[in-house]
Amino acid sequence: MIDSHRTVAIVGAGIGGLSQAIALKTKLGFHNFTIYEKGSEVGGVWRANTYPGCSSDIEVHWYSLSSDLYPYWNKSHALQPEIQAYWIKLSKKYDLYPHIAFNTRVFSAEWDDAKQQYTLVAEDVFSGKRTTSMAHVVISAVGILENPRIPYEIPGVRKFQGTSFHSAQWPGSIDLQNKRVAVIGNASSGAQFVPSISEDPSVEVINFIRTPNWFSTVPHIPYSDTEKWIFANIPLAMRLHRAWIMFWFDFRSPVPPSDKALKKRREMMTKYILDNTPSKYHAHMIPDYPPGCKRTVANSGFLESLHRPNLTLNFDGIAEIVESGIVTNTGEMLPFDIIIYATGFIGEQYQMHVRGLNGVTIQGYYDTHGGPTAYLGTSIPDIPNFYLLCGPNSIATPASTMFVEEVQIAYNLQLIEPVLTGSASSFTVKASPTDAYNAKLQERTSRSVFMQCHSVRTNGTGKVFLFFPWAATVLWWWLRRPNWDHYVAVGAEKWERARSIKAVKKILKCTTVLTLSWLYLRGSAQRILHGMVARK
Hints:
This protein is of the alpha/beta class. About 35% of the residues lie in helices and about 15% in strands. The strands form 6 sheets. It has a 5-stranded parallel sheet, with helices on one face.
């Protein structure tokens, strides 16, 4: 029975936060929760990223909520407006809007061990006014694409007198016509908007590339009306399509590929890039690291756009940014009206002050462990009743982050339910299993392809903090149910008693089934023997 006085705080109304809220309602029948969202609408990264050509980099049928598959996606990798509309529709379907505090940033969350609850301080992003609230459970759904990274390590970033912005902060009113535009970076975001902005021949685009990327050989494929009809009307067709996508991306992960297979894959991806790009770029377009080291970029027209006369790639490196443009490492000064940063996001720093037991903070824990660290990417020692979505080392590339978050949500619910029913006050993961898990994870990572890419490691320590080095199905298996011995339970006498009774019932049930089966088999054997004797 759910205790109506218990409360849950969800930080972030992106796809993870919304999915967690939907699960609380549909799986536990729990409604006493608040979602704190710094923006003015739901969607998270899909609300914030409105740059031209913004789309999912994983096939969208695997990037949808498993309980609410959508048959009418226009193509395999949906565009931002379509994905955003999908999550707005779900928020209305499950009546989530009354639970959301928009334009509100959670400033801090501190655990009161005597009261077994968190004190949250939230701030209105416009007025700066702060309010205080309480929550027995906190879900961190801020994701990994929270804070845009501006490369301040480049001298003179603040000197530029023209217009500059990060792709995740695209101004709605920006006019690029007849402008000289510098784009710094060409990973997922840059490779998506460069083809769009260079469609206008009056826009002169120079894309500065420090490190080339591997591109997926699977293009964005439109769905026909027939395919949409099949998804909508033939039972299981859409689920089978989704399962096939997951199988295709994940089946190679459990068993490390042979050297021959890796070589063949690299040759195939190299050929794909060279076949689709002008010969003048061939010497620079092939990465010196192996495929899989970083997330492979979905080619949504970037390679083909390189044939346009108004688009140029620059591999010289940036020496500094000056008032009117960019000076390359060759000493050439290139004037620009606009600089667009497609330089990723800050992942090493946790963006909210959270304090648990013994004065431990999340950022402090990260710092003492050489970078972001957690138990199964979900829990942190000395931080009770606090659960991460897409936490450290939880991205099972090239899997769907939606799949990963649904797996974590199902795991979280098992830890949350006893607290919401009043059967327990708190659960805190122990330090020893957390250390053991991360030692195993980092040992596996040290033998993986990820070690060959600097950009996926924590600056200064060399620790890989983003990727999960096994298949997504391994993460699902490990998170299918909690290992309760790895947690400290407080105020859980009722829960432990119920758990013991449940275990006894399970044993009795198994014993009964085995006994009846034995008696049935024994009786059958006796009847057979009796028949054989009678025939003689």
